[in-house]
Amino acid sequence: MLALLVAGHLHAATLAGVTLPDSATVAGQRVELNGLGLREKFFVDIYVGGLYLSHRTTDGAGAIAADEPKRVVMHFIYSKVTREQMVETFEEGFAGLPGVATHRADIDRMIAWVPAQVVAGQEIVFDYSPGKGTSMVLDGKVLGTIPGAEFMKLVWGIYLGPHPPTEDLKRGMLRGSAS
After folding, report:
1. Which one of 22, 33, 118, 135 is CB 3.0 to 4.6 Å from 145, fit for a cystine?
2. Cα angle for residues 78, 114, 99 (degrees, 5° grid)
3. How far apart are CA 52 and CA 156, in angstroms?
4. How far is Cα of residue 14 from the mean position of the Cα atoms in its chain?
5. Distance of CA 73 to the CA centre of its chain
6. Would you call 139 exposed, middle or buried from its count of C-beta atoms within 10 A (0-12, 13-18, 19+)?
């Protein structure tokens, strides 16, 4: 049994002391860890971002457009990030993306789900399920779901689009391989 546990961890990926599993289940389907990236701000490590896709890729536009189960994980490593800091970051991320005006009500609804704070070790996850929508999850609890593929494209555009929080985060998530 110990050998099975150790073998399972050999396929996980680690960055900045955070280990994410090599696969997850979204909408009843297996998704693979495509890559990990580090979100830094002013030389401070904020979170490790993980991208899970049905098919590994290095193409951000393709990953955004794919109407298939997928996941973005933000595993926080900074001691405390406030709601105001997260909202500001989400708003900056959405700002340069096409379709923001059309989806302003959905963005506002998602922003309303942002917790008062997150601390090191907590995870915010975005899961996309085709036909259902994009769910925001905090530590395994679904905070809400916004229907439609277009909103998913906005959320994934934050991380994989032309103006990600950092190029290192995007590059790491689009490595195409968790190792």
Report:
1. 135
2. 110
3. 11
4. 16
5. 4
6. exposed
Residues 6+ apart with CB under 8 A from 27: 69, 127, 128, 129, 130, 132
Dump pLDDT digits (tens) for 1-31: 333 333 333 468 999 999 999 999 999 999 9
Contact 70/53 with Cβ under 8 angstroms?
Answer: yes
- For residues 94 and 176, give the distance between their C-alpha atoms in angstroms, rounded to a whole number: 24
73 inside domain: yes
137 has which bridge partners?
125, 142
The pLDDT of 134-158, averaged and rounded, is 97
User: Considering its fold, how many domains does the chain have in total?
Assistant: 1
Domain that holds residue 32: 19-173
Listing DSSP states for 63-90 in one string gives HHH--S-EEEEEEE-SSEEEHHHHHHHH
- Which CATH number fits the domain that encloses residue 131? 3.50.70.10
